[in-house]
Amino acid sequence: MTQDPISLVPIGRVRGGRSEVIDDDWGGNRSTIDLDPQTFTPDALAGLGDFSHVEVIFFFDKVPEAKIETGARHPRGRQDWPMVGIFAQRGKNRPNRLGLCTCRVVGVQGLSLQVEGLDAIDGTPVLDIKPVMTGFLPRGEVREPAWAAEIMADYW
Amino acid sequence: MTQDPISLVPIGRVRGGRSEVIDDDWGGNRSTIDLDPQTFTPDALAGLGDFSHVEVIFFFDKVPEAKIETGARHPRGRQDWPMVGIFAQRGKNRPNRLGLCTCRVVGVQGLSLQVEGLDAIDGTPVLDIKPVMTGFLPRGEVREPAWAAEIMADYW
Q1: A2 inside domain
Q2: Does pLDDT of A1 surpass 70?
Q3: How far apart are CA A94 and CA B74, in angstroms?
Q4: What three-state secondary structure class fits A142?
Q5: Do A130 and B101 meet the contact criterion of CB atoms below 8 Å apart?
Q6: Is residue B89 part of a domain?
Q7: How far is CA B156 from CA A54, A55, A127, B56, in A?
Q8: Cα-to-chain-centroid distance, residue A113
Q9: Could you tell me how many CB contacts below 8 A there are between chain A and chain B?
Q10: pLDDT for B135
Q11: What is the DSSP string of B59-123?
Q12: Which residue among A20, A68, B87, B131 has the highest number of C-beta atoms inside a 10 angstrom radius?
């Protein structure tokens, strides 16, 4: 299986909000996503204010390649949680270093989307923004292991 | 704002399931995501079977660059729906051509993750898999415009 690389160009950057990488307490974090004015006009965000939430795909640019995990590890290094594969957890040291967060839309102004609860720091490259549609939420009951609930206890 | 390109390498491919790009009826679509055996061992998927759902980030490799929309358009070309920005809709002709789908975990076998309801066709490059944790679902009430519910009526 040969896998040709795919080249992506950030659509913009996270501006403001938290500037340090910290595990918890992201809930009240307010920031904006500023679209690149060389590529976009405010048209790109038209109508986004009619949605309460967006999904943001971003790039963990502070993670060095050498730290990427391709196998299994304890989430957050917690020995009391099971060893699980990198694709069974959401940690940032992952192949392709993609982050994904559902956050609240505060407002849209020109090329800026103001959000609350985006778990990406100031300066983070953003790759995509998608509106949350109820039809795209999980279909059927959501089941998760106990550690997955514990890890989120203080996250927001 | 200069935006250096980011190079990603697919972690694997979608195998099986639907092979034609069709807008609707994805709900019963069963396929597998086969991880690249040159990079991964089954460890990478360890514990994923304890989750009912995953989020899959993939690349719409069939969309030609010339078709990418950077401004606003009617979703699916429907004139009776409003003109909205490309980041206020989930269509595939979008900057960076990233797809994102929440689908059901059917099972894990070696380097293969079997899923149901993944809206990506056979052969699609996959960039990331994340487990759905209830703590990462939208916080607060989800609000969306009427067209967003209409567009999903026959999707699954």
Answers
A1: no
A2: no
A3: 36
A4: coil
A5: no
A6: yes
A7: 21, 20, 26, 16
A8: 15
A9: 283
A10: 93
A11: E-TTS-GGG---SEE-GGG-TTSPPEEGGGS--SSSGGGEEEEEEEEEEEETTEEEEES----TT
A12: B87
Instruction: Kindly tell me if the per-residue pLDDT of B96 is higher than 80.
Output: yes
SS3 B50: helix
Q: Which residue has the tokens 């079997």?
A: B114
CB contact under 8 Å between B143 and A7, yes or no, is no
| CA B27 from centroid of its chain's CA atoms | 13
pLDDT at A2 over 70: no
**For residues B96 and A127, is the Cβ–Cβ distance under 8 A?**
yes
pLDDT digits 0-9 by tens, B18-73: 888 877 788 888 999 999 999 999 999 999 999 999 999 999 999 999 999 999 99
CA A100-A106-A108 angle, to 5 degrees, is: 95
Yes or no, beta carbons of A51 and B144 under 8 Å apart: yes
Taking contacts as CB-CB distances below 8 angstroms, the residues of chain A near B144 are 50-52, 131-134
> Does residue A5 sit within a domain?
no
Q: What is the pLDDT of residue B4?
A: 86
Determine, yes or no, domain membership for B116. Answer: yes
**Which CATH number belongs to the domain containing residue A98 in this structure?**
2.40.30.70
Split into its structural domains, chain B has a count of 1
Q: Which domain holds residue A74?
A: 12-134+142-151
Give percent of chain A above pLDDT 90.
85
| Token digits of residue A129 | 């923004």
* pLDDT, chain A, mean: 94
Cross-chain residue pair A7–B12, CB shorter than 8 Å: no
B window 33-92, beta carbon within 8 A of A: 34, 36-41, 43-48, 50-55, 57, 59, 70-72, 82-90
Q: How many residues does chain B have?
A: 156
Residue where the block lists tokens 């995953």: B54
Task: Report chain B residues whose CB lies below 8 A from the CB of A83.
Answer: 46-47
H or E, element range at B107 = strand B98-109
Q: What's the confidence (pLDDT) of residue B1? A: 61
Does residue B2 have a pLDDT over 70? no
